[in-house]
Design a protein that fits this description.
Blueprint lengths: L6 E6 L2 E4 L3 E3 H4 E5 L4 H6 L2 E4 L6 E6 H11 L4 E4 L4 E6 L7 H29 L2 H13 L8 H18 L13 H23 L18
Parallel strand pairs: 1-7, 2-8
Antiparallel strand pairs: 1-4, 3-5, 6-8
Length: 221
C-alpha cells in the first residue's frame, strides 16, 4: 500500500443518480489533483455496491468516502469542497416510448390550463369583475354594457401579458436570464426533500458513515 502525500480536492452534489450497481468515486464526485496520474485511479475506486435491483436511495457521508480513499491511499490529503452528505439514487435506466412523453405532456398542459382558467374565473366571480366593468362602462359612456367592451378586452390582454412577464417564460423563450418563479419553487422543494432524506437516514442510523457498521458498505468490493 503506497503512501501518497498529494492533495485531492473533492466536490460532490447533494443528489446523484447512478445506473450501475457498482458505484465508484468518479460516479458521485468530481475531483482535482496536481498529480494527474492519480485521478484516473481514484475515479475507479469502489465506494458502494447496490445489493438489489429496483429504485433505491442511499445517504453516504463525505467522511465515509474519505475513509474509503484512505484505505488505499493512507497519506493522501483530501479537501472537501462540496456537500457533507450525498444522496445516491440508483434506478435502472429505462427510456419510455415517445408516445408516452406526448401523452404526459398533453395531460400536464391540459390540467395546468384548466386549473389556471378555473382560478381566474373564480377570482373574477368573487370580486364581481363583470359587474364592476359594466358599471364603469355605463358611468363613462352612458350606455349599457353588453359584456364585451374595451374594458374586458384590455383586461384579458393585461392578464396574458402579466402572466408572461411574471413567469418570465413563453415556450422555449426567456425574457431575462433570471430563473422563473416555478424554477425557484421547484429548487426549494428539491432542497426540502433532500434535507428530509438526509435527516431521516441519520435518525434511523441508515446513513453510510464512519464508525457505523452497515451490510451495504461491507460489500463494497
Amino acid at each position: 500500500m503506497a503512501v501518497n502525500h498529494d492533495t485531492v480536492y473533492l466536490k460532490g452534489d447533494r443528489n446523484v443518480e447512478v445506473q450501475k450497481m457498482d458505484v465508484t468515486l468518479g460516479d458521485i464526485v468530481s475531483m482535482e489533483c496536481s498529480n494527474k496520474e492519480l485521478i484516473p485511479k481514484l475515479k475507479t475506486l469502489k465506494i458502494l455496491k447496490i445489493p438489489n435491483q429496483g429504485k433505491q436511495r442511499f445517504v453516504i457521508s463525505i467522511l465515509k468516502i474519505i475513509a474509503c480513499i484512505h484505505e488505499k491511499y493512507p497519506g493522501l490529503e483530501i479537501q472537501n469542497m462540496g456537500e457533507q452528505d450525498i444522496i445516491i439514487t440508483y434506478e435502472e435506466q429505462k427510456t419510455p416510448p415517445m408516445f408516452m412523453h406526448v401523452v404526459k405532456t398533453a395531460c400536464v398542459a391540459l390540467i395546468t390550463f384548466c386549473g389556471a382558467a378555473f382560478s381566474i374565473m373564480a377570482f373574477n366571480n368573487d370580486v364581481a369583475t363583470a359587474k364592476l366593468f359594466s358599471q364603469i362602462y355605463e358611468y363613462v359612456t352612458g350606455s349599457t354594457s353588453d359584456g364585451f367592451t374595451i374594458l374586458e378586452v384590455t383586461y384579458s390582454i393585461g392578464i396574458t401579458i402579466g402572466i408572461l412577464v411574471f413567469f418570465n417564460h413563453f415556450g422555449k423563450k426567456r425574457f431575462t436570464v433570471d430563473p422563473t418563479p416555478m424554477e425557484v419553487q421547484m429548487r426549494l422543494y428539491e432542497n426540502d426533500i433532500q434535507t428530509t432524506l438526509i435527516e431521516d437516514a441519520s435518525r434511523r442510523e441508515q446513513e453510510l458513515d464512519v464508525g457505523k457498521s452497515n451490510h451495504i458498505s461491507s460489500h463494497r468490493n
